[in-house]
Amino acid sequence: MIRLSKSIVGVEEAQAVAKVITEDGYLGMGKEVALFESELASFLGVNADHISCVNTGTSAIHLALEAVLESGDEVLVPSLTYLASYQAISASGAVPISCDVSADTLTIDLNDAEQRITSRTRAIMPVHYASNPTGIDEIYSFARKYNLRVVEDAAHAFGCKYKDQLIGSFGDIVCFSFDGIKNITSGEGGAVYTTDQEVAQRIKDARLLGVEKDTEKRFSGQRSWEFDVTRQGYRYHMSNLFAAIGRVQLRRLMTEFAPKRRSRADLYRRLLRDNQFLKFQKIEEDTFVIPHILSVRVVGGMRDGLKSELEKQGVQTGLHYKPNHLLSLYKTEYSLPISEQLYKEMLSLPLHPEIEENDVYKICEIINSYLIQ
Ligand SMILES: *Cc1c(COP(=O)(O)O)cnc(C)c1O
Fold first, then answer.
1. Best residue for ligand 1 mutational test, from 54, 127, 153 (most atoms within 8 Å of Cβ)
2. What are phi and psi of 131, to 5 degrees?
């Protein structure tokens, strides 16, 4: 069986976790998380005050939205995203407003989004689908024009660049996921980058039950016994154990994971380039993409047949994603034609740093011989 995705962790991560257990012994949020935050900050080239690690990518988005929105505020979001983006919006008391995506880039279609603006619209959440950070300039000018906050769902895009700038080194608020199969993992985990110092402080407090300035105490090995709370908070902090895994993964990203993911994705594109039944996502020149997933459109009504054929031959595939506006909880009265078409045509092919070139050749051979019938 060739797996769709996989956590790539080994002895180094295991030793780092063992060290926290045997040497430090403090498993909550402490020194190791402080180190992970400062290493993330220096990787991104930003100040560590602006980075907050949390327990999942979903809670990163939830805290980011709650820091800037009020109940009933509307958030423009592409329907083609992981359910987590939507659940984080509704958890914050805001309302997700489903938008269509552009058929070529698979990112939010601003012409569609513009039509959905109301007097309650307060934020836009671009999703860097399949790690594609294209069009960020347009999103930020759109946000300036309509006075919106930007909360980037960059769960796919850790390590990616737009015009030579790392995602999460500029902008308003950027949320990452470090779950088991993302570009780097901390077991489970996430992080928020924001340029806004006040938002950063709110997020740091909210991840620890809203206890004011608790982060600073914990990072110096203390606890808050006497404190005040002014806002809703959560137990969304990251554990030292998870941070230890994340620190090792961060060191492996650019040397090991990124070249593998990029070259395997390139190989797929090259071997499938001439197949007229397949359409790949457009990747712009001014981006650096470390692909978290590799989704391709299978046209001509052949997707389901191809999916079964691949399965029969031991190749796992995926569907990213069922559009959220089709789910009962987020059902819209309007339709989103591109997202609905993509739902019928998208197929995600195996991609992770341990896929061998031979596997890719084998998969593409199956695809090319099935799709000419
Ligand atoms: C993975 C993911 C999330 C959520 O991250 P978790 O760490 O799994 O909670 C959010 N949005 C997108 C697009 C994702 O792929």
1. 153
2. 70, 15
